[in-house]
Amino acid sequence: MSKKRPDIFLIIAILTAGIIVAGALFYVQTQTNKNPLQPYSEQVLIPETMQACSENDQCIVIDTMCSFCCKYTAINARFEKMFNTLFDNNCQHYEGAMCECFDLGSYPSCINGKCQLVKWSNDKSE
User: Fold this and answer.
1) Are 107 and 92 within 8 A, CB to CB?
2) 96, 42 contact by CB (below 8 A)
3) How many CB atoms lie within 10 A of CB 37?
4) Which residues neighbour 79 within 8 Å (Cβ) at sequence distance 6 or greater?
5) 3-class state of residue 49 by DSSP
6) Run of H or E residues at 107
């Protein structure tokens, strides 16, 4: 009878170690989106249809980074609510750092049927 007890303890120890390893592997797989080297990297991809515009459309500036880290682009103002929903859905689980930056070096404009960011002119004569 004393010979069976060490076998039972060995089996329990091996099962416990297996559960710990499986839990560690599961944890690592669920954390793949959280890269500590790039805490600002999660971004919303904008469909080109949101950038389509005509001469009378208004273009607006949006930040596509879940961290609000100045990855600006321009979209048609008609798609602002759709973008906000897309942003909220894609960034709802973002837990990384947040930025406080503002880029005032360009403005949104409709150029050749596409909302784009245009750099301000340095020409003082305009």
Assistant:
1) no
2) yes
3) 5
4) 49, 50
5) helix
6) strand 106-111
Which of 24 and 83 is assigned the larger pLDDT?
83
Ordered DSSP codes for 59-103? EEEEE-BTT--S-EEEEEGGGHHHHHHHHHHHHTT--S-------
CA-to-CA distance for 115 and 110, rounded, in angstroms?
A: 4
51 pLDDT higher than 50 = yes
Question: Which has the higher per-residue pLDDT, 4 or 101?
Answer: 101
Provide mean pLDDT across the span 94-113. Answer: 86
Cβ atoms of 57 and 110 closer than 8 Å: yes
The set of residues, in sequence order, having a beta carbon less than 8 Å from that of 26 and lying 6+ positions away, is none
Instruction: Look at residues 34, 51, 38 and name the one whose alpha carbon lies nearest to residue 99.
Output: 38
What lies within 8 Å, CB to CB, of 99 at 6+ separation is 40, 65, 67, 68, 69, 70
What is the overall mean pLDDT for the chain?
81
For residues 8-22, give the mean pLDDT: 80
DSSP assignments along 9-23, one per residue: HHHHHHHHHHHHHHH
